[in-house]
Amino acid sequence: MWVFYLISLPLTVGMVLFTLRYYAAPHVPRYVLLTVGYTWLSSLSIIILVPADIWTTISSNHDNGGISFFWSWSYWSTFLLTWAVVPLIQGFEDAGDFTVSERLKTSLHVNLIFYLIVGSIGLFGFILLIMMHKRWSGSLLGLAMACSNTFGLVTGAFLLGFGLSEIPKSIWRNADWTTRQKVLSHKIAKMAVRLDDAHQELSNAIVVAQDTSNQMSRRDPLRCYMDVIDDMLTQMFREDPSFKPQGGRLGESDIDYDTDEKSMATLRRHLRGATEEYYSVYMTYVLEALQLEDKIKNYERRNSTGWKYISSFRPARTGKFGSLCDTLEFFWQCILRKQVQKGLAVILGVMSVTILLAEATLLPSVDLSLFSILIKSVGTQEVLVQVLAFVPLMYMCICTYYSLFKIGTLVFYSLTPRQTSSVSLLMICSMIARYAPPISYNFLNLIRLGSDKTTIFEQRMGNIDNAVPFFGDKFNRIYPLIMVIYTLLVASNFFDRVFDSLGSWKRYVFETETEDMDGFDPSGLIILQKDIGLSKEAM
């Protein structure tokens, strides 16, 4: 029972550590890294516990004390971190105050407003439940757990639907070099505009900070706070000597920052936010475009180079195996990788169709879920059961998180390799943790273990059909049908055509790569050619 879990847990720990190291900015505090890492680990532990729980239920193994303990640890750790610890630390990190106590007060104030709103909604729902279902006999704990995941089940269905359609399509499109070049030329042009805006915003913030510092005397009681801001500017210029503020200007609201401690905290927060925005855009797409240009040139010159990969971004390989490594890299980068991407897109497309079929046939009594059929067919083989449960469940998680990141990067946070701030990391981990239990609950509905077999996860989560009657007795079977219809509309680009016809409403829809495939963007190509020239000079 524990073989698969003991293998998956170290791999999950390694994946969490690698992700943190890849995305976190150097200045992120250790307590933030520990909080984010533990939150990711506890939420992903729910996903790797589901296969073990399924095997225990199928095999009628009554020795389930270990799974019950790990369920309690994973779920309640995730719950407390998501709704209490992470928001508090996030508010603390986002605050611009100068002392620990003041930053903590600001965080408590911001989160108290949020908790009051959520608590009011929860109280209204609880009163409505009592009015509509007076003879409800379930446990209060089961009700609370079920209600806390209802939002995740409903919104998660739409996030899952978008990912099921978009991930296979984007992998297939990106396998074509010309198509990817078109997409990147558009993205670089858009990012260049964002970079200019971020540069202007940072320049304004620097001018405001410098002007405030110049006007403040050395004996001013707020001077100690201004010195902290001055140190921020000094460190920023030391880390990036090439940055030159241009066109910074003062606005009408920028002349009152030296009135009290709170206004100084606002100035500090504004400067920090402008700095993070400036360093979180543009370079990711430029680097990818330069590497793609490198691949195309290597493929075109394959006969003259002897089918060896000659990179423009690193020194030539030397030594006994240098030539062999160059040849292997050429075959992978220029020949095999495209075929692997297309094969992966086909496999994921088939999995998406299989998941949609399983979701669409939840209401009828006929079991058409391929995952359910496969798991039941190998019911006596522990490892196979857990692998067959884990693979589609992980794919569902990836699809959901892909859509979640799409929304987040457009509205809430930035996710940039080695430049992601503390606030963005904490917001991302909070969102991931909120959707792990609902995704697992949805998957358990797809495999149909039978009415006489209930997993420990379902026992602890409660049954929403019974606990939340105002959603209907068949809530868990009906809402996936809506998700299936939504996914088909996304796959057919229905929403793109609708929002195109509505003009300005386009800003409220997901940004997909379909609109960037219509030819090259001239401004993006000009910017890219300049960066290619700069990279050659650096070499």
Structure description:
The chain is mostly helical and 539 residues long. The chain has a domain at 1-167 and 319-407 and 421-489. Helix content is 74%, strand content 0%. The chain has 19 helices and no strands. The chain has helices at 3-23, 30-58, 65-94, 100-132, 140-174, 177-215, 223-239, 261-278, 283-300, 302-305, 322-360, 370-377, 382-411, 422-447, 456-461, 464-467, 475-491, 494-502, 522-538. Helix 2 packs parallel to helix 14 and helix 5 packs parallel to helix 17. The longest helix has 39 residues, at 177-215. It is globular, with a radius of gyration of 27 Å. Its main location: membrane. Pfam families: LMBR1. This is LMBR1-like membrane protein. It is a multi-pass membrane protein.
Please write out the topology.
Elements: H1 3-23, H2 30-58, H3 65-94, H4 100-132, H5 140-174, H6 177-215, H7 223-239, H8 261-278, H9 283-300, H10 302-305, H11 322-360, H12 370-377, H13 382-411, H14 422-447, H15 456-461, H16 464-467, H17 475-491, H18 494-502, H19 522-538
Family: Belongs to the LIMR family.
Protein name: LMBR1-like membrane protein
Organism: Glycine max (Soybean)
Query: How much helix is in the residues?
Result: over 70%
C-alpha end-to-end distance: 55 Å
Name the beta content range.
under 5%
Q: How many whole angstroms does the radius of gyration measure?
A: 27 Å
What is the global morphology? globular
- Structural class computed from helices and strand pairing: mainly alpha
Number of helices: 19
Main location: membrane
Organism: Glycine max
Protein name: LMBR1-like membrane protein
Transmembrane segments: 6-24, 31-50, 70-89, 110-131, 143-164, 343-363, 383-404, 478-499
